[in-house]
């Protein structure tokens, strides 16, 4: 049985999965929360952010299909047995949205919208020097399913693009770096830093007082990966010194962001509430069905999470 917990999109997942699953070799019954089912019948669960202890009763559970790309919250849980495989979504309509989100921030920087917004408040008519795409160095942290698409797109737009990942990559039009030395080199040659890194023990506070200060004065940061990447007090201290022109943040150390958090009212912070890239249900369903087929045929599903790497 495949049990579904998909919050607001529950009805859409149920109906699309019910239409798509009959094409599988073996029949799988599909049931959606909160319908109660014999826990021992559940072998697959497709879920996003279920409540605490949700997974505990399902002793025959083999695979969890995470209905998103980041699995940090799944890996932090204590109700998932270590032998249960976690499969995440790869792209599922998110890459195009990530491109748009990043492009929005990059254009804000390149077309100097932050300066013009300030000038408007002062009734000031003052054209600035033109800045072309080729004058802007964009660094993409994370060259996976999403970051690679973003970096390639920006390079095709004419930006000077670098990328950084755990293992060395080759991406056409993108100068690729890996490792700690690679990070320090690339940060110091960046005008706009875009992160789409997962949250893992290694990426926690990767952008801290030391590394943030390596990014040149007058640059901008866009974070659409996970909030744990940035040491927020260190970022605020640098923002106070006008080290960065602006930061565009979609993700935060704690979500939802505390109403008293200084980010809300900061003139150099542009905020969105974790909406950079939403899962497209139809794409997710196609991927889940394809992976169920792979699992039934004894193949490895795409997007299988490595628990040791944390993503
Ligand atoms: P992938 O797993 O495909 O890519 C992750 C990338 O990060 C890989 O290039 C990987 O390197 C790199 N990476 C991981 N750990 C390190 C490290 N310690 N040092 C350097 N590089 C590292 O993930 P996706 O591209 O699909 O998604 C990325 C993240 O985006 C998700 O985990 C999620 O947190 C976030 N996200 C945010 C959304 C939003 O709306 N804000 C929506 C969707 C996703 P390597 O290639 O060497 O493995
Ligand atoms: C995801 C997200 O990881 O929405 O899919 O953040």
What is the structure about, briefly put?
Helix content is 30%, strand content 17%.
DSSP helix fraction: 25-40%
- Morphology call: elongated
Low-pLDDT residue intervals, each spanning 5 or more residues: none
The neighbouring-strand order within the major sheet is: 8-7-6-9-10-11-12
Give the H and E element order. Answer: EHEEEHEHHEHEEHEHEHEEH
Report how far the terminal alpha carbons are from each other: 26 Å
Structure ligands: NADPH dihydro-nicotinamide-adenine-dinucleotide phosphate, oxalic acid
Secondary structure class reads: alpha/beta
Topology overview:
Layout: E1 2-5, H1 10-20, E2 30-32, E3 44-47, E4 63-66, H2 72-75, E5 85-87, H3 94-110, H4 113-121, E6 137-141, H5 145-156, E7 160-165, E8 174-178, H6 179-187, E9 192-195, H7 209-214, E10 219-223, H8 232-240, E11 244-249, E12 269-271, H9 281-296
Parallel strand pairs: 1-2, 1-3, 3-4, 4-5, 6-7, 6-9, 7-8, 9-10, 10-11, 11-12
Helix pairs in contact: 1-9, 3-5
Write out key terms for the chains shown:
311 residues; alpha/beta; 5-stranded parallel sheet; 9 helices; 30% helix; binds NADPH dihydro-nicotinamide-adenine-dinucleotide phosphate; binds oxalic acid
Description of the molecule:
This protein has 311 residues and is α/β, with parallel strands linked by helices. 30% of the residues lie in helices and 17% in strands. It has a seven-stranded parallel sheet, with helices on both faces. It has a five-stranded parallel sheet with strand order 2-1-3-4-5, covered by helices on one side. Strand 10, helix 8 and strand 11 form a beta-alpha-beta unit.
């Amino acid at each position: 049985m495949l049990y579904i917990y998909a919050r607001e999109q529950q009805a859409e997942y149920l109906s699309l999965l019910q239409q798509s699953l009959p094409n599988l070799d073996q029949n799988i019954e599909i049931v959606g929360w909160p319908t109660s089912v014999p826990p021992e019948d559940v072998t697959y669960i497709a879920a996003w952010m279920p409540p605490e202890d949700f997974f505990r009763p399902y002793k025959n559970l083999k695979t969890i299909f995470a209905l998103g790309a980041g699995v940090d919250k799944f890996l932090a849980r204590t109700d998932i047995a270590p032998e249960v495989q976690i499969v995440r979504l790869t792209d599922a309509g998110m890459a195009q949205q990530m491109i748009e989100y990043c492009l929005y921030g990059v254009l804000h920087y390149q077309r100097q919208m932050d300066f013009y917004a300030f000038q408007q408040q002062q009734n000031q008519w003052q054209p600035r020097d033109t800045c072309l795409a080729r004058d802007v160095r964009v660094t993409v942290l994370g060259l996976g399913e999403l970051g690679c698409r973003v970096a390639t797109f920006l390079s095709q737009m004419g930006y000077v693009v670098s990328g950084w990942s755990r293992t060395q990559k080759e991406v056409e039009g993108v100068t690729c770096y890996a490792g700690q030395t690679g990070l320090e080199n690339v940060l110091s040659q960046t005008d706009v830093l875009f992160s789409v890194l997962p949250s893992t023990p290694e990426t926690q506070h990767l952008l801290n007082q030391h590394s943030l200060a390596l990014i040149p004065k007058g640059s901008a940061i866009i974070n659409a990966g996970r909030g744990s990447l940035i040491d927020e007090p260190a970022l605020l201290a640098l923002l106070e010194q006008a080290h960065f022109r602006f930061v565009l943040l979609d993700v935060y150390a704690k979500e939802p962001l505390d109403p008293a958090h200084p980010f809300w009212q900061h003139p150099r912070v542009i905020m969105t509430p974790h909406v950079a890239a939403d899962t497209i249900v139809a794409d997710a369903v196609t991927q889940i069905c394809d992976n169920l087929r792979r699992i039934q045929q004894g193949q490895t599903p795409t997007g299988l999470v490595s628990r040791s790497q944390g993503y």
